[in-house]
Amino acid sequence: MEKRLYRSKKNKMLAGVCGGIAEYFNIDPTLIRLLWVLFALMAGGGLIAYIIAAIIIPSEM
What is the C-alpha to C-alpha distance for residues 53 and 36, in angstroms, rounded to an integer? Predict the structure, then answer.
């Protein structure tokens, strides 16, 4: 079966983007969320990237 990236409904905090990425790579969603926050604080583009990802990545069926 082909593996696809979706926004998660199980591991959802805001839009399910971090949970979906964690499910895709089979790792803990908290780790992805922490990395996303670090990216947002250091690079400054994390919030914009999250909003774009929430729009582009389809929701889990």
Answer: 12
